[in-house]
Amino acid sequence: MKWETIEYTKPNGVAPVIEYLQSLSPKHETKVLRSIQLLEEFGPEIGMPHVRHLNDGIYELRTSFSSNIFRTLFFHWHENKLVLTHGFTKKTQKTPAREIRRAEMYRRDYLERKGDKE
User: Fold this and answer.
1) pTM score, two decimals?
2) What domains can be seen in the chain, in order of their start residue?
């Protein structure tokens, strides 16, 4: 099964994951986009070292490039749809709780606005 990634968009039209990708250098952006392609091909079941379940249906897509560690958070919506909430460059071993809370907030907003409609 092929998976589809969707960018979460705030009510004001801003897509945090797109903003994040555009903030990266071209090399780093390409590497993260390649990870997203893997996610679309294999889905969240690809597992470690690419995908890790964080909390309550929130996952992180893990991308490493030399000493840089990039994370793209997402959740599963409907059959084959994965919603990319936002990304960040990781500076510590543990994923910061604020980043998980942010993904949960974006998911709540997305589901309130989209619900079960595709």
Assistant:
1) 0.92
2) 4-114 (3.30.2310.20)
